[in-house]
Amino acid sequence: MFKLALKNTLFYKGRSTATAVLTFASTILFILYISLTNGSHNAILENSLKIYTGAIEIYHKDYRDIGGNEYLIQNVKAITDKLAKIEAIEAYSTRYETYGLLSNKEHSAASMVAGIEPEKEKILSSLESALTEGAFLDKNSANCVYMGIELAKKLKLGIGDEVAFIGSASDGSFAADIFRVCATFKTGSFEFDSSSSFIARSYFDELMYAKNRASYITIKLKNIDDAEKVNSQIITIIDDENLESLTWKTLMRNMVESMEVDAVFGYISLSLFMVVIFFVIMIYGFINVSSRIKGFGVLRCIGLSKRNIFSILFYEILILSILATVLATPIAAYICYYYSINPIVIEGIADIYKDYGIVLNEIPFDFNLFTIGWNLGVIYLLNFLSILYPYMYINSFGPFEATRHV
Amino acid sequence: MYKLILKLAWKNSFLRRARVLLVIIMIAVSMSMMLVLEGVYDGLVKNMVDKNKRSESGDISIFAKEYRVNRDLTYRIKNADEIKAQLQSMKGVEAVVLRVKADGLLSTARKSSFASLIGIDLKEEEHFGKFSEFLKEGVIDLQKQGAIVGIELAKTLKLRIGSKVVFSTQDTKGEINSIALHVRAIVQTTNIGLDNSAIFIDINQSHKFLGTTSQDAMQIAIRGEERELYEKLKRAFPNLDVKEFLELQPMMKMMQDVMIIFNSVTFLIVMGVVFIGIFGVMYVSILERVREFGIMISLGMPYRYIRAQIFLESIVVGLLGYLGGAVLGAVLLIYLERYGIDLSAFSDALEMWGYEAVIYATIKVSYFTTTFGAIITASLLSVIIPLAKIKKLNPIEVIKADK
Q1: A171 part of contact set with chain B, CB < 8 Å
Q2: A258 contact residues in B (CB cutoff 8 A)
Q3: CA distance A213 to chain B (A)
Q4: Considering only residues 172 to 231 of chain A, which have any Cβ-Cβ distance to chain B shorter than 8 Å?
Q5: What's the maximum distance between 2 C-alpha atoms anywhere in chain B?
Q6: Is residue B230 a part of any domain in this protein?
Q7: Distance (Å, rounded) from C-alpha A40 to C-alpha A51?
């Protein structure tokens, strides 16, 4: 059957070429589209994770939903001592976050002011690498504030300038102090850069009465893919029903969901191309078999079963699909690989996206062999489906009727 | 003669019914899917543009120079009421509103977040952009220190109707000032900036709080779509910053451009593949009748009649596919225009990006006219090559060869 199918494929050049070319085009289109979609989504998520959000974060229950000082984590040391025993954790740090008003003589702006452990943040987040001017915090930085560049611009502050802070301490009392701008940062997220500033916890804890307390504990893993597994381990080891340990998938649920919505719309658009291509391949297959009805009739008369006929059609489409995908896959895979290392850079897109908190001017592709594999699976499936109607059409003729077909 | 050719074309179109039916289904399905995609994507952008205009930018906005860069009370328009009166008397201006804005800190007993206070006149905003249509929860009322907050800000601060909040900022004298407010309503404008950070209060209240006067405003928003209006305003107010909608919302401009590019590329690819499909069927359908055409030519039928017949056959197939696609597409679009696609399961994510949970399609006549043109063109082009083969035919040889 295979030999017969191969000969037919070579004989009906027009149909074979059209089917192979369409399969080739759809394979390249499909692999590149999925790679681009996944790549850009991964980049947005990784970018957001890299900046500040941890792979896992531990909160007091209701801190995220209700908030307030009564939902701060108490006795932080006891928890971090337990975390130190987990092998899969690369680093962890405690953060104390509050909102306050920062003012100089003429300008004021609301800001998230966070007390951080500078040495640990160097490993955990990209805060240090986002430095634009001045020097990053250390444990002796005292009243030094590390300020988002957009916030500094808003307040018209430069390095060395003083800024007044008004907020409320962890016990609900009024907290006020004068900070000195020691450095500015730019992470790429406009919202973050225009609303965040950081102080070393060693100083901030005194001001906010927050020693051994934290808004949450952030954790970096050796391998982010282990997030769920490690999270279960953390929950077991902490063993405190008042605390909750959440992975980045929960922490960034909205972001993950919006990527899913975007992907759904992408798949809908892509399905349009696939449906049209499927129809055309089916039409060419149908034209081909309708011109060979007589031939199929003869084959049936000399003893070939319906199953054999199906095998011929199956082998024909398999040969054409293999031919097209063998050519298309390396090309598409190479393009994916190339652009995963050298992302497409669109100048100026950063400014347009700043309202969305995303400043990604790089659009990388995702190079993943598993993804390419299932993409190919879909292409093969569509091509196999395209022979069903032609096969049914052949079977609508009896063997003798088919031999007399004009 | 043409009547006979028309009859021949019609009958020959259905000579191989299954084959032609497949092409018609292919055209109809791909066309209807394309129409739905165009309608939904255009609807998405149209909805956002419309709500952004109504909630904030208007068609044109006027600011004091430097205000948009510094967002500071110092850079306010100090004769806004006079300008408003002047604008209202101008031809092409449909509505004008003044807004007072200040950035600051919004706090509840438990949480704080940065926010933008916007002083508005509710009655004028209703006329300007049907403000009440943005209501998600509560009652539109700014009396007695009432406030209306954007949906995302409400989520951030866990605000409910009746929640008490305090907004703090620097007033015109440089003093830190605070105002206690009661949340009366939560709105969703789909304008990401407003939904994330806006707290609306009565404009007179905002003047009192910030130390500005009723002559002051940070923004004068104008509705009026005449193109000349923008140029006229730029000339009339050279000392102010006059911006039209797309200048203020570059993201919208980008979205519109991306949608046009996306829809055009989709259109071209789909029509290209549809062309290949029609071409395959027409090619085979014509070449398997070469002998018939040879006989017709031998009988003295001029080539132009054969050409007309083949063109008509391709038009019949294209037209039937188009009609199927147009009807199916129109039905789907009407449904989606009325009921939309409900993506409530992803509502949080969509709202975060400024989209509504239900996405409605839009219908434009141009969807149908351009598709009609493209399908008929594809149908006609698909027979050019087979026609060229027929033209070269030597009737006697053809009849002999196929005998």
Answers
A1: no
A2: 346, 349-350, 352-353
A3: 16
A4: 195
A5: 103
A6: no
A7: 17
B102 in Cβ contact with B198 (< 8 Å): no
Contacts (Cβ under 8 Å, ≥6 apart) of B158: A65, A66, A67, B108, B110, B111
**Cα A31 to chain center, whole Å?**
17
Q: Do B104 and B38 have their domain in common?
A: no
A385 and chain B: CB distance < 8 Å anywhere? no
| One domain for residues B265 and B365 | yes
pLDDT tens figures, B139-165: 999 988 999 999 989 988 889 999 999
What sign for the dihedral angle of Cα A168, A173, A178, A181?
A: negative
User: With contact defined as beta carbons under 8 Å apart, do A181 and A195 qualify?
Assistant: no
- Looking at the fold, whether B220 and B256 belong to one and the same domain comes out as no
Closest CA of chain B from A105, distance in Å: 7
Cβ separation A276–B37 shorter than 8 A: no
Q: Answer with the residue of higher pLDDT: A110 or B354.
A: A110
| Best mutation target, A151, A279, A363, to test chain B (most B CBs within 10 A) | A279
What is residue B287's predicted lDDT score, i.e. its pLDDT? 78
Residue among B70, B104, B266 whose CB faces A110 most closely: B104
Q: B192, A356: Cβ pair inside 8 Å? A: yes
**Cβ-contact A258, B346 below 8 angstroms:** yes
Query: What is the distance between the alpha carbons of residues B140 and B146, in angstroms, rounded to a whole number?
Result: 9
Most confident of the ranges A335-339, B249-253, B288-292: A335-339
Q: What local confidence, expressed as pLDDT, does residue B403 receive? A: 46
The string of DSSP letters for A135-193 reads ----TT-TTEEEEEHHHHHHTT--TT-EEEEEEE-TTS-EEEEEEEEEEEE--S-HHHH
* Cβ B363 vs Cβ B334: under 8 Å: yes
| Same domain assignment for residues B338 and B355 | yes
Q: Which residue of A has its CA nearest to B352?
A: A254
**Which structural domain, as residue segments, surrounds residue B158?**
60-224
- Copy the structure tokens of residue A13: 């050049």
Confirm whether pTM is higher than 0.95: no
Number of other residues whose CB lies within 10 A of the CB of residue B236: 14
Q: Where are the alpha helices (DSSP H) in A162-305?
A: 190-193, 201-208, 227-238, 248-251, 253-290, 293-301
Substitution target in B29, B30, B291 with the highest count of A β-carbons within 10 Å is B30
Give the A:B interface size as CB pairs under 8 Å: 154
B254 in contact with A at a CB cutoff of 8 Å? yes
Q: Which residues of B touch A282 (CB under 8 A)?
A: 22
Helix ranges (H only) for B117-249 are 122-129, 151-157, 192-197, 203-210, 227-236, 245-248
User: Does residue B240 lie within any of the structural domains?
Assistant: no
Contact status of A346 with chain B (Cβ, < 8 Å)? no
Query: Residue B231 domain-assigned?
Result: no
Contact yes or no for B273 and A100 at CB 8 A: no
Are residues B212 and B68 part of one domain? Answer: yes
pLDDT tens for residues B329-374? 999 999 999 998 888 777 777 766 667 778 899 999 999 999 999 9
Q: Tell me if A311 sits within 8 A of A7, measured CB to CB.
A: no
Q: Are residues B364 and B260 in the same domain?
A: yes
Same domain, B72 and B6: no
User: For residue A98, what is the nearest residue in chain B, using CA coordinates?
Assistant: B112
How many domains does the structure of chain B reveal?
2
**Nearest-CA distance A136 → chain B (Å):** 25
Q: Are residues B47 and B84 in the same domain?
A: no
For chain B, positions 36-65, list CB contacts with chain A under 8 A.
37
Query: Which tokens is B204 given?
Result: 């007179």
How large is the ipTM?
Answer: 0.71
Q: Which of residues 125-164 of B touch A (CB under 8 A)?
A: 158
CB-based contact, A260 to chain B, within 8 Å: yes
CB B168, CB B105: distance < 8 Å: yes
Q: Establish if B204 belongs to a structural domain.
A: yes
DSSP state of A73: B
Question: Above 90 in pLDDT, residue A18?
Answer: no
